[in-house]
Amino acid sequence: MFLVDSHCHLDCLDYETQHKNVDEVVAKAAERDVKYMLAVATTLPGFQQMKNLIGKRENVAYSCGIHPLNLDEGYDFEELARLAADKEVIAMGETGLDYYYQKDNAELQRTSFRKHIQIGRELNKPVIVHTREARDDTLMVLREENVQDCGGVLHCFTEDKETASALLDLGFYISFSGIVTFRNAEQIREAARFVPLDRILVETDSPYLAPVPHRGKQNQPAYVRDVAEYMAVLKGVSIDELAEVTTKNFCELFHVDLTEK
Ligand SMILES: [Zn+2]
Ligand SMILES: [Zn+2]
Question: What is the pTM of this model?
Fold first, then answer.
């Protein structure tokens, strides 16, 4: 079996008390058949630090981008384009809109979001989109910037079935995290049942949001296995089938070839 954690913040795990180092985290993941992961950036300096910490590995890919909640410092669009052009970078982001935690800079969030899509289209790299309480604006920006040209994924999906439907119409993939296993997440489960198998990805978003049965612990890529097992039951397929299709989806979206791995 080959599972992919399509979204983790590998650089944010606790290497003081929980893990020895990145090698150990990657090994723990492999023990549970999680054999590839996408390490997602949230700032440009953070992107560089993440690359330094993790290094070049055949089972870790990178994204490059600025999280909508990290815009206070400002950043240089040219620098984003330059860093994102790196061969190891397979995606733009995470970008998007978060009006739940910050609404006073909504205009700036939209501008940054648009910029990520524009660069993604130039480089032919898909966007990883974060959205919270910003459903309409998120869809508006995606449509206006012709996101179909580079494609993308709505990560850590917490919206409803109708939003999933609108995203599918844009050619998007939908990534489900440990939230889908939470007791009060019936709306997300309804959306998960609705999204066709060939558009589903699974992720941890670690170190946040550990899935059942690891609630209260720090999340890590190994736990994407628990998300995948839960999703398999929801979709009425075997874990092997869910692993196979989500890995295939990941490869298609991000233009990576994992057949050798
Ligand atoms: Zn996010
Ligand atoms: Zn994230």
Answer: 0.97
